[in-house]
Amino acid sequence: MLDNLEATPYDPSMALIRQLIVEYVIFPLGSALIRKRHPVHTKSVMFYGPEGTGKTLMVRAAATETKALIFDLSPVSTLGQYAASKAEGDKMIAMVMKAAKAYAPSIIYIDECEKVFPGKKKKGKGAKKAKKNDPSNPARIKKTLVKWRAKWITDETRITVIGCTSLPMEGSKKDFKKFFDRSIYFPFPDYTTSRMLWKTFIEQCGGYV
To answer: What's the whole-model pTM score?
Structure first.
């Protein structure tokens, strides 16, 4: 799939994105030998940029290229799950990490990651602080996720965490820098790239351009 998304000479930004994803995600996930011989690898990457720029599409493309399973820990997927207590939330993250290791290569995908690593906001009168074990609070998994990432994702485990956000300004810059090893900006594609993408997708669906 990444070959189909190869950028034209008129779109250097897309070519750079493709190069960075191959280096930070494809190689460490796709080859156990590369992972072992090059221990300084990227454990987690954040894709950020406006909506509709292909962040989620690139996650799926990376999974296709490396034959990796995707484990979705996005707020929309974890809402209300294992929320009876803090221990239940910890159990959910532990189960995902163990399954990701057992069925590696694996991608742990977190869409809207700014909700898991929220920035501090000024509270108005009557505002209530969200509880960490509140099933409607995506940030309840943050502490456990950070702990398991540090202990479980090693040079021997082919697991990569990919977070996506269209609103990075709403997240904690400090937490982002601490949790994600790399960040890649996705701009809007230019006309040439958009035309190429539509042509590829239409042909894949049996249409003609």
So the answer is: 0.80
pLDDT confidence bin for 197, thresholds 50/70/90: confident
Contact indicator for 62, 171 with CB cutoff of 8 Å: no
Rounded to whole angstroms, how far apart are CA atoms 127 and 192? 48
Q: Using DSSP bridges, classify how beta strands 182-185 and 44-48 pair: parallel, antiparallel or unpaired.
A: parallel
Name the percent of the chain in helix, strand, coil, to the closest 5. 45, 15, 40
Which has the closest alpha carbon to 117: 143, 95, 92?
A: 143
Quote the pLDDT of residue 40: 57
Can you list the domains of the chain with their CATH numbers?
Answer: 12-204 (3.40.50.300)
Q: Which of 24, 52, 67 is nearest to 160 (CA)?
A: 24
Residue 25 token pair: 């995600």
- Stretch 111-133: mean pLDDT: 73
State pLDDT tens for residues 39-85.
Answer: 657 889 999 999 988 899 999 999 999 999 999 999 999 988 888 78
Identify the CA nearest to 162 among candidates 34, 80, 89, 73: 73
The number of beta carbons lying within 10 Å of the beta carbon of residue 94 is 14
Main-chain phi, psi angles of 25, to 5 degrees? -120, -55
